[in-house]
């Protein structure tokens, strides 16, 4: 019998899943509580296969075999107990229950059988997409026969002996190999925002630098200025960047005067004001960086239009952008349904994309 991998408790598995799959980068099904249960159960059963090659000679499982696992069973670590679990679970639920009782434990599964579709259609599907799990192609998808096993490279990330810098390096190497360029951008962005504990330096289109307080909003603003603006606008000029505490970074006063505007006035100042001076007339982009809340909703758009009029900017020359860390971030999930019509949304981890919420037939 091949050497079985170490038994790993669910809380340890859950922590590592969150390390491997940052929330901003991948569907939550990949690191959900039921996902942690499945990894723990599959490691216990030895359902691990090489990343490539023949899959038929290894232990394969059905989703239900993972759902029937319990914390009590995980405490029975001998190879004999683990092999007995697999053999009983492969036969039937009743035989499996009898085996658990033979261990002196009560049959108390983590999940009911009605969760198997969630595990198979969401978690396993997401894992298969990124190479964390394999299925036996010889087994039809409609068959009740077992057909799933974790890939060896993915399973190795849960080795309890792997810790500290070695764990971080192993996770990063697996991500580089399996998650692809787009997902890697998301992961690196999420990590950069999480690490933002020092001042954020923004390089403006003219080469000058502004230094903002640390935080997600500042990271978003840096992305808007350094990435979105230079791709989206013909000749962007940053007129103002505001921070909490009424701290405002303004463009040179004479430049503002030349555009016929005054700034700031009142508390409605957007997080950033960027002019596209190649347009005739000049277009003014009023930007909200949504680190926690504050997207351009209908009410906020009305406030910004009033602010623009007060400061010499014609409302008809205004455009609106709500900027987020990620489409999967909590602020985006909360506020995207509330975006005002005639506005745009941009995401730091997908810098080459933009969402527009416009009425059909409108110029936007």
Helix proportion: 40-55%
CATH superfamily of the largest domain: BsuBI/PstI restriction endonuclease, N-terminal domain
Secondary-structure element string: HHEHHHHHEEHHHEEHEEHEEHEHEE
Number of helices: 14
Poorly predicted spans: none
CATH architecture of the largest domain: Orthogonal Bundle
Nearest-angstrom radius of gyration? 27 Å
Q: Determine the strand fraction and express it as a percent band.
A: 15-25%
CATH topology (fold) name of the largest domain:
Arc Repressor Mutant, subunit A
Principal-axis shape equals: elongated
CATH class of the largest domain: Mainly Alpha
Mean pLDDT: 88
Q: Widest sheet: strand order? A: 7-6-8-9-10-11-12
Class derived from helix and strand content: alpha/beta
DSSP strand tally:
12
Distance between the termini: 65 Å
Q: Sheet with the most strands?
A: 7 strands, mixed
For the record, the count of structural domains works out to 2
Task: Write a concise keyword list for the protein shown above.
Trna Endonuclease, Chain: A, domain 1, 40% helix, 364 residues, Arc Repressor Mutant, subunit A, 14 helices, 15% strand, 2 domains, 3-stranded mixed beta sheet, single chain
């Amino acid at each position: 019998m091949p050497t079985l991998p170490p038994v790993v408790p669910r809380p340890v598995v859950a922590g590592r899943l969150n390390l491997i799959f940052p929330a901003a980068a991948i569907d939550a099904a990949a690191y959900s509580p039921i996902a942690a249960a499945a990894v723990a159960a599959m490691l216990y059963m030895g359902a691990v296969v090489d990343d490539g090659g023949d899959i038929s000679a290894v232990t394969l499982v059905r989703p239900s075999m993972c759902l029937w696992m319990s914390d009590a069973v995980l405490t029975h670590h001998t190879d004999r107990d683990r092999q007995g679990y697999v053999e009983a679970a492969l036969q039937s639920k009743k035989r499996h229950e009898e085996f658990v009782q033979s261990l002196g434990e009560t049959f108390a599964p983590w999940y009911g059988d009605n969760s198997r579709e969630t595990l198979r259609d969401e978690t396993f599907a997401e894992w298969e997409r990124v190479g964390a799990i394999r299925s036996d192609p010889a087994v039809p998808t409609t068959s009740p026969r077992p057909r799933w096993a974790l890939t060896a490279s993915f399973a190795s990330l849960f080795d309890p002996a792997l810790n500290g810098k070695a764990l971080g390096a192993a996770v990063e190497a697996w991500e580089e190999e399996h998650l692809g360029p787009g997902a890697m951008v998301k992961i690196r962005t999420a990590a950069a925002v999480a690490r933002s504990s020092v001042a954020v330096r923004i390089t403006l289109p003219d080469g000058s630098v502004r230094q903002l307080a640390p935080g997600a909003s500042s990271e978003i603003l840096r992305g808007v200025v350094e990435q979105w603006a230079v791709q989206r606008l013909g000749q962007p000029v940053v007129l103002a960047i505001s921070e909490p505490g009424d701290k405002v970074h303004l463009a040179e006063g004479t430049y503002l005067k030349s555009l016929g505007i005054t700034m700031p006035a009142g508390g409605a100042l957007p997080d950033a004001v960027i002019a596209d001076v190649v347009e005739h007339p000049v277009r003014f982009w009023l930007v909200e960086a949504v680190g926690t809340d504050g997207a351009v909703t209908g009410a906020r758009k009305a406030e910004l239009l009033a602010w623009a009029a007060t400061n010499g900017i014609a409302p008809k020359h205004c455009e609106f952008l709500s900027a987020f860390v990620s489409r999967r971030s909590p602020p985006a999930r909360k506020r995207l349904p509330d975006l005002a019509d005639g506005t745009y949304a941009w995401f730091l981890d997908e810098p080459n994309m933009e969402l527009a919420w416009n009425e059909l037939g409108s110029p936007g």
